[in-house]
């Protein structure tokens, strides 16, 4: 006799787990929170890594009327310095002044720009300003300026005194450079200007020395074959050939200069040097 099949009562129906549904406004809040976190992180990093750049200087003005060039510009608040650049990157000046002399600018057309500095930060350069400059004495201009009446203030002009014209020459003296048996290896003569007053038969020169010792050494060498004389600005020597060397002893600002005058049929050495506008 067949046994009856016993069945277990069915349990409650099984329901798969439900995935929570994100409402649109919830998504928007999450996105906003992520954006705020990212922006906050950006500014936190920027606060530690960014550099404040100073403003660009304005008002760059160039004055090239004297054979050299003077550049001026307006100061920039907060700037610790400035950099003036000529042409394709030649740095004329780097410092705190807002008026700068470019004493070595060659003749021709030039462009200048200026930037402000704040530590290592450099502002964008100012708009370029162009100017045409004439010939100048370059780095030796401060020396020539010591004699504004006697010497031409630009090489391509004549001086006020007797239409004097000059050429420049940088050179060492006879015993300054060269091997030890003929010189001391040092350059003592900084600059030499050879000039002619009125005509080529009235020549003279102005020498600048690196120190008073250098000038005195040259003067002492000349004294061995010369007689001492006085002139209206100091002491001098005249040798048997009529060559005179004269020190300026009454003006400390020009104590490193020595004037050399050559005797010619057209001039007396002492009269010539005494007539010079020193």
Account of the 3D structure:
There is one protein chain. With 278 residues, this protein is α+β, with helices and mostly antiparallel strands. The protein has 2 domains: 73 residues, Immunoglobulin-like, CATH 2.60.40; 137 residues, no CATH class. The protein has 4 helices and 15 strands. A 7-stranded antiparallel beta sheet has the order 9-10-11-15-14-13-12. Strands 3, 4, 6, 7 and 8 form a 5-stranded antiparallel beta sheet that branches. Strands 1-2-5 form a 3-stranded antiparallel beta sheet, with no helix packed on it. A hairpin with a 4-residue loop joins strand 13 and strand 14. 24% of the residues are buried. The N terminus is likely disordered.
Topology overview:
Blueprint: H1 24-49, E1 61-63, E2 69-72, E3 81-86, E4 90-95, E5 99-102, E6 108-118, E7 121-122, E8 129-133, H2 141-144, E9 165-169, E10 189-196, E11 203-209, H3 212-223, E12 226-231, E13 234-239, E14 244-247, E15 257-261, H4 269-274
Antiparallel strand pairs: 1-2, 2-5, 3-4, 3-6, 6-7, 6-8, 9-10, 10-11, 11-15, 12-13, 13-14, 14-15
Biased composition (Pro residues): 10-19
Transmembrane segments: 25-45
Protein name: Fibronectin type-III domain-containing protein
What can be said about this structure in brief?
Helices cover 17% and strands 29% of the residues.
């Amino acid at each position: 006799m067949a046994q009856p099949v016993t069945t277990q009562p069915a349990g409650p129906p099984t329901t798969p787990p439900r995935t929570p549904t994100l409402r649109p406004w919830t998504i928007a809040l999450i996105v906003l929170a992520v954006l705020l976190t990212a922006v906050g992180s950006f500014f936190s990093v920027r606060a530690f890594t960014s550099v404040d750049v100073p403003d660009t200087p304005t008002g760059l003005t160039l004055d090239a009327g004297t054979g050299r060039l003077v550049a001026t510009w307006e100061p920039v608040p907060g700037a610790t310095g400035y950099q003036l650049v000529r042409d394709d990157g030649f740095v004329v000046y780097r410092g705190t002044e807002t008026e700068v002399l470019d004493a070595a600018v060659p003749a021709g057309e030039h462009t200048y720009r200026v930037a402000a500095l704040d530590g290592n930060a450099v502002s964008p350069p100012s708009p370029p300003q162009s100017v045409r400059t004439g010939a100048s004495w370059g780095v030796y201009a401060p020396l020539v300026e010591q004699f504004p009446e006697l010497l031409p203030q630009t090489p391509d002009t004549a001086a006020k005194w007797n239409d004097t014209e000059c050429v420049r020459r940088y050179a060492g003296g006879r015993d300054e450079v060269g091997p030890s048996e003929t010189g001391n290896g040092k350059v003592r003569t900084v600059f030499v200007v050879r000039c002619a007053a009125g005509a080529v038969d009235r020549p003279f020169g102005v020498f600048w020395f690196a120190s008073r010792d250098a000038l005195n050494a040259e003067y002492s060498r000349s004294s061995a074959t010369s007689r001492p004389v006085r002139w209206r600005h100091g002491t001098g020597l005249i040798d048997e050939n009529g060559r005179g060397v004269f020190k300026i002893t009454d003006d400390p600002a020009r104590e490193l200069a020595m004037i050399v005058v050559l005797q010619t049929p057209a001039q007396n050495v002492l009269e010539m040097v005494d007539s010079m506008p020193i």
